[in-house]
Amino acid sequence: MAVRGVSVNHRLLSDFRTDHGEALDQLFTQVIASLVDQGVVKVSRVSQDGVRVRVGAGASSFRWEERLQKLLEEAKQHVQELHQQLDSPEAPVRKVTAKQAAARKRAARERQERLEQAIAQLPELKQRQEEAAQRAGQGKSGEKIRKKEPRVSTTDAEARVMKMSNGGFNPAVNVQLASDTESRAIVGVEVSNEGSDSAGLSAPMRQQVEERTGGKVEEHLVDGGYLRIEDIEEAHAQGVAVFVPPKPARNPEKRGRELEPKAGDSEAVLGWKQRMKSEEGKEIYKQRAATSETVNAELRSWRGLGRLTVRGLAKARCLALWCALAYNVMHFAHALLA
After folding, report:
1. What is the mean pLDDT of residues 156-173?
2. Which of 5, 35, 155, 200 is the least crowded, having the fewest Cβ atoms under 10 Å away?
3. Portion of the chain with pLDDT greater than 90, in percent
């Protein structure tokens, strides 16, 4: 198939889906802005949730630093040998075409680049590991974290092994979606390799929503995985009321008393506890599941947010934007065409 002399194939279509991230992001914003102008989207109350989505990297592709260094040296040597073999005028007659030779060189070079990208991820992973160990303390838990050597995939350096909704662990990315609770329009999309939603993902999403819509988020609904006192404090300083359930008390005797005021609670924490205890707050928080879980289910079932076959967070974000864009267009076509 060709359109005005341009051959259309699977590679061209794949590149189109993932090579225009900035333009796609702007188009997504334009659609949201149109919905805001039509009065469909108000964003004063948004619900945010994370979806772990499988990626193409296999579990067996994750390697420790020592093995990665060895594989990189082998890859560099292979690239040199391949160039000597294919480019040297003294080489014997080759039974490969110029196209085949170029493909072999490209494959060898790309493997070397992927290994270099994997090794480049190690400093960040080590830093995260040390931060997690510090939070765990100096006991056995902290020591166990420090002894665990980070591993990186040789096929997708930015993928991470995450706990999935079925309880298993797979290479995945964390797709963050923010939705307007009144219209259920998707107003924010981000993709990260943070396996935990508690890694400070709520404030950046809130900022993104406000930049896309020009509105002010006044109430932010998230599930218990996002709970961080520092995020509640930051939101309070910005005039935002966070709705998030408390973590269950470790002591069974204190279960059900997690929202009781404690000495040393700040104004922000006391306000959060009061909100979550009130009947009004409980009714508001019910909108989180009614909004985010239905949106997530539709994107997984009907809008293509299944297993991602692309490499890297940038390309994964493009696919997530396509899914969110398709969702908004299908649900609000009447408003967009008005």
Report:
1. 94
2. 5
3. 76
